[in-house]
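User: For my dataset I need records formatted as: sequence, then structure tokens, nothing else. Please produce one.
Assistant:
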Amino acid sequence: MTLTTTPAKQLDAFLAKFDPKIAKLIRSCRAALRKRFPTANEIVYDNYNFFVIGYCASERSSDCIVSLAANSKGVGLSFYYGATIPDPHKLLQGSGNQNRFIRLPGAATLSQPEVRDLIDDAVAQAKTPLPKTAKGHLIIKSISAKQRPRK
């Protein structure tokens, strides 16, 4: 990528690496999360294992509330501090000390009441609150030279 390439064009190039069905799912989930978090920064990591878009209150990944995480098998919604979120419906997967996730078969999953509750709880416990006004920015943070196949 050249220095004149915009973040939006870089994002399009990252998504072009995916099977069209997965790329479409990422786009639809991103649109739903952008609508839910209009003031959040979208921080993008195109890493070895996953392509990630984090929704953050600042430019720091530690201020991330949720992230879309995608690989060749599908898309998930990752909760950065998911281990401490109430999960009465037992939707959260993972067993690490911090992160939890749910799989997203479609963007409609994000509007299910149980999932909205998880997202609301993640927002409520965020160490840095989201700005009340302003528009979030798309920030490309990291691109790994070596990556697992996206298709």
